[in-house]
Write a structure and sequence with these properties.
Elements (H helix, E strand, L loop, with lengths): L1 H4 L25 H12 L7 H6 L17 H7 L29 E2 L4 H8 L6 H10 L30 E2 L8 H9 L5 E2 L3 E2 H5 L3 H4 L4 E2 L5 E6 L3 H14 L4 E6 L4 H4 L11 H14 L4 E6 L9 H11 L3 E5 L13 H10 L5 E5 L5 H10 L5 E4 L1 H5 L3 H7 L7 H19 L3 H18 L27 H6 L4 H12 L24
Parallel strand pairs: 2-11, 3-6, 4-6, 6-7, 7-8, 8-9, 9-10, 10-11
Antiparallel strand pairs: 1-5
Function: Catalyzes the synthesis of dihydrouridine, a modified base found in the D-loop of most tRNAs. Specifically modifies U47 in cytoplasmic tRNAs. Catalyzes the synthesis of dihydrouridine in some mRNAs, thereby affecting their translation.
InterPro entries: Aldolase_TIM, DUS-like_FMN-bd, tRNA_hU_synthase_CS, Znf_CCCH
Family: Belongs to the dus family. Dus3 subfamily.
């Protein structure tokens, strides 16, 4: 009881060990130095020109001597690392592929950015007739301009519906919620998946890296994309563009992101302070496309000043099909426990045609059961960090059990991720290292999992900090380490040796219960 009160996981005494000594952190290089090193590396033999790699012919590159990549075939072959074990997953990389054997050229992903559309976006010549017509009818063709009659004009098209009830929903997760990770969660029982948050302005400018966040795998049978923006016109044009170019089942608008760079632009949780702008965004987007528009919000902006309950009745009237309420304010970020009593209050105030989903701290099938029984008005619950730490939570909920998963079973899940990553990011050197980077980002979360058989009290709570402990075998001990060096060792089991001089620092801190600024 004393350990639980201090949010320390009650690991059985026989598995406890002294905490590891801290290691010296290397000094970080400046952005300018890193850019210079990248430019020099591109001209090295290890960075073979993609055209030359595909054909094996130096003369095939249209840029000839002006190409920024190397054309040294002999030099590339001499330094190329040994091939990885297994078959090539999906390969247009030719000689650069890290696999021997047959190269497959068929991808099972959709929602790529058409080059002609990208050029129109670059030149700002893309037309948005539906969005512009809807914005004009609402008087929102300029940001924040109030509608003349203040009412929403109905449109003749029938809105498509989506049913979230009882479905296991993997939350949209920045960085770690990538397509390969979503595939892992689908295998383990997730019903609904959603792409990582994409910024509307970047999508409208045709940025390929932002459009990559909208990609969908064929296994994602109920899939949405999440977008973030500050103004009705920007969001309306973005949803029309997505509706034209992508295959999605719903479009989610983020109105809860707490990150400063998003909030300072008037997007994310900043919208919680601007209900009339929220109204304009929901009306404009839902009136532009037939696809269901859903929104994700927090309880409010400032701690102690929840406000979504006062808007929940209006959100359905404005045109949203569903709303997910994350039980924290923007000021809390991810600190303290989620306020589920307040989420229940919102669900009970919503109209019958607005589905309300809850989000925050679900980490076992008991958490899921409790929220569903405490508040039958909830359509479903969204699972975020719980899935990052143990993606088999979806299996546990469906089978109603605590899965005492072995280290070997966990390694097999990681093998799936590595295979899916190589299919998505590529099987050349760059693809392997991109897969490794995102695997390491995921390992920075999943190391927080404590096996069921090691705990005196089950289930583990999301806010428990694990003490230093040994597992039931060497691999389980390695997986419990919070050291980046050990995460790299795990990555080498799956993707081969890291390049010389390789370092890794996680983008996010996985434990955000100590201090609010960790969010």
């Amino acid at each position: 009881e004393e350990l639980v009160a201090k949010a320390i996981a009650p690991v059985k005494k026989q598995f406890l060990r002294p905490p590891p000594t801290s290691t010296l952190v290397k000094e970080k290089k400046s952005k300018r130095q890193l850019k210079r090193e990248r430019q020099q590396e591109k001209k090295s033999a290890s960075h073979l020109c993609p055209e030359v790699a595909k054909s094996g012919d130096v003369s095939s590159c249209p840029y000839k001597d002006k190409c920024r990549f190397s054309h040294d075939l002999d030099g590339f072959k001499a330094q190329k690392p040994d091939d990885l074990e297994g078959e090539c997953p999906f390969c247009p990389y030719g000689l650069a592929c890290r696999f021997s054997g047959t190269h497959r050229r068929k991808s099972s992903e959709v929602n790529g950015l058409n080059k002609d559309v990208q050029k129109l976006l670059w030149k700002n010549k893309m037309k948005f007739p539906k969005a512009d017509a809807k914005l004009k009818s609402l008087g929102l063709d300029r940001p924040l301009k109030k509608a003349k009659d203040g009412s929403l004009k109905t449109h003749s098209r029938e809105k498509k519906l989506i049913d979230f009830r009882e479905k296991l929903y993997l939350a949209p997760l920045t960085t770690v919620g990538n397509l390969p990770f979503r595939r892992v969660c689908k295998v383990l029982g997730a019903d609904v998946t959603c792409g990582e948050m994409a910024m509307c302005t970047n999508l409208l400018q045709g940025q390929a890296s932002e459009w990559a966040l909208l990609r969908r795998h064929s296994s994602e049978d109920l899939f949405g994309v999440q977008i973030c923006g500050a103004y009705p016109d920007t969001l309306a044009r973005t949803v029309e563009l997505i509706d034209q170019q992508c295959t999605v089942d719903f479009i989610d608008i983020n109105m809860g992101c707490p990150i400063d760079i998003v909030v300072n632009k008037g997007a994310g949780s900043c919208l919680l302070t601007k209900p009339m702008r929220m109204k304009g965004i929901i009306e404009a987007t839902s009136g532009t496309v037939d696809k269901p528009i859903t929104i994700k919000v927090r309880t409010g902006y400032f701690e102690g000043k929840n406000r979504i309950d006062s808007l929940i009745a209006d959100i359905g009237t404005w045109g949203a099909s569903a709303v997910t309420v994350h039980g924290r304010t923007r000021q809390q970020r991810y600190s303290k426990l989620a306020d589920w009593d307040y989420i229940y209050q919102c669900a009970r105030k919503a109209s019958d045609d607005l589905q309300v989903l809850g989000n925050g701290d679900i980490y076992s099938y008991l958490d899921w059961n409790k929220h569903k029984s405490d508040c039958p008005e909830l359509a479903s619950c969204m699972i975020a960090r719980g899935a990052l730490i143990k993606p088999w939570i979806f299996t546990e909920i469906k089978e109603q059990r605590h899965w005492d998963i072995t280290s070997g079973e966990r390694l097999n899940i990681m093998k799936d991720f590595a295979r899916f990553g190589l299919e998505h990011w590529g099987s050349d050197k760059k693809g392997v290292e991109t897969t490794r980077h995102f695997l390491l980002e995921w390992l920075s979360y999943t190391c927080r999992y404590i096996p069921v058989g090691l705990l005196d009290v089950i289930p583990q709570r999301l806010n428990w900090r694990p003490p230093a402990y040994s597992g039931r075998d060497d691999l389980e001990t390695l997986m419990a380490s919070d050291s980046a060096a050990d995460w790299i060792r795990i990555s080498e089991m799956l993707l081969g040796k890291v390049p010389d001089g390789f370092t890794f620092a996680p983008k996010h801190k996985s434990n955000a219960y100590d201090r609010a600024e960790n969010g």
